[in-house]
Amino acid sequence: MKIAVIGGGIVGSVAAFYLTQNQQYTVTLYDDGHGQATKASAGIICPWFSKRRNKAWYRLANAGAHFYPQLMKDLQKTGTTSKAYQARPTWLLKRRPQLIDDLIALATQRKANAPLIGKIKKLSPTQQTAILSEWHYPHDIIAIESGAAVIDGEMLCQDLLRASFSNGLIYHPTKAVIDKISAQSITVQGESFDRVLLAAGAWLGDLLTPHHFKVDVHPQKGQLAVYRTTSSHSWPLIMPEGETDIIPHQNNLLYLGATHENDQDFDQHVQPEALSEIFNTMSHLFPHFLLNNYVEIKVGTRAYTRDFSPFYGPVPKFPHLFVASGLGSSGLTTGPLIGHELAHLITQNTLSMDWADYDPKNYIQKILE
Q1: Which UniProt keywords apply (predicted)?
Q2: Among residues 6, 208, 233, 356, which one has the fewest Cβ atoms lying within 10 Å of its Cβ?
Q3: What pLDDT is stored for residue 38 in this prediction?
Q4: 240-243, long-range: CB < 8 A, 24+ apart
Q5: Is residue 270 part of a domain?
Q6: Does 204 map to a domain?
Q7: Would you say residue 46 lies in a domain?
Q8: What are φ and ψ of residue 122, in 5° steps?
Q9: Is 97 inside a domain boundary?
Q10: Are 187 and 316 in the same domain?
Q11: Residues 130 and 277 grouped into a single domain
């Protein structure tokens, strides 16, 4: 069977990795990398305190968080040791004391189906500064000792592709175009494939619109600032209210972000002023941190839908054409599991999730030609 994957972000890279484990398949990946959300993602894995009412989203996010250890083991089996996944103690900031109590109760309740969640407790301001001397915050916080993690999305994709190359992945660093969608096959860049996975994120419409599909996927610009520090390797992952997240990564890199800009279309220009709220929050929490000393501002384009829900699976009436999109800012939490599930859907193997809750039919419609 010949399979094409269009898009080398987190979904496409994971799907290609699992598809290439079976030598019966010839797998080709198309990806130009331009504007890819994964490369500009902070990578926070901690969905258990979310109060989103979308239960299907939470099931996917929780399962996605628990899938990471398995993904790391599967990479290890191929001889690829990835350092992209790092477990981190995590602090959550909420100004209202009642909200702190409510979230602790919520996460404690969720422990029954989330064994990753470690000990949850409150930390007073004195306890906080005893752990992190540079820190200034005059309220109690929520601390989770284990279970949460940070992900270097770009590094993880590189590790996945390296493992896939060793199993025969064919790679084209180009923006792919679908030439034809027929009842039996799909032609991409002049080559016919039996199955095709479209994991192009916010660019899904560019691939399907020329073939008379209406696609409910929209671009959201995200920017985050990257710093090189001397001490952040020992910091917890910190999640204040609002857009600000303070994410320590390897090699004393620290990420601040990320913005959620729905009015910038596919613009990839760096605009530091959009980070002003994030910088302001950081200055209050770390008064002596030099905010202007960032080494880079990363820019990426997320995909979101009208109801901010992700979707994946076969395109209605085209069982050989598969899609995934709409992951939004939780893409690195849900993306690996979605990529794994799509690889199993394509090859008709056993699934761990009921994809009917994330059916593309709610977001993709074929228009009469």
Answers
A1: Flavoprotein, Oxidoreductase
A2: 356
A3: 80
A4: 240/93, 240/281, 240/285, 241/93, 241/94, 241/95, 242/277, 242/278, 242/281, 243/277, 243/278
A5: yes
A6: yes
A7: no
A8: -90, 150
A9: yes
A10: yes
A11: no
Alpha-carbon distance of 261 to 287, in angstroms, equals: 27
DSSP character string of 147-168: S-EEE-HHHHHHHHHHHHHTTT
**Residues 243, 99 share a domain:** no
* Same-domain check for residues 298 and 227: yes
Average confidence score pLDDT of the chain? 94
Specify whether 212 is located in the same domain as 228: no
Return the H-helix or E-strand segment holding 310.
none
Q: Using 50, 70 and 90 to split pLDDT, how confident is the model at 53?
A: confident
Coil vs helix vs strand at 339: helix
Rounded CA-CA distance 314/57 in Å is 19
184 and 141 in a single domain? The answer is: no
HSE-CB of 2 using CA atoms within 13 angstroms:
10
Average pLDDT rounded to a whole number, residues 9-33: 96
CB atoms under 10 Å from CB of 99, counted, come to 14
Q: How far apart are the two ends of the chain, measured CA to CA in Å?
A: 30
C-alpha of 367 from chain center:
30
pLDDT digits (tens, 9 = 90+) for 168-219: 999 999 999 999 999 999 999 999 999 999 999 999 999 999 999 999 999 9
Q: Are 6 and 121 found together in one domain?
A: no
- For residue 187, the model assigns a pLDDT of 98
* Helix (H) or strand (E) run with residue 309 in it: none
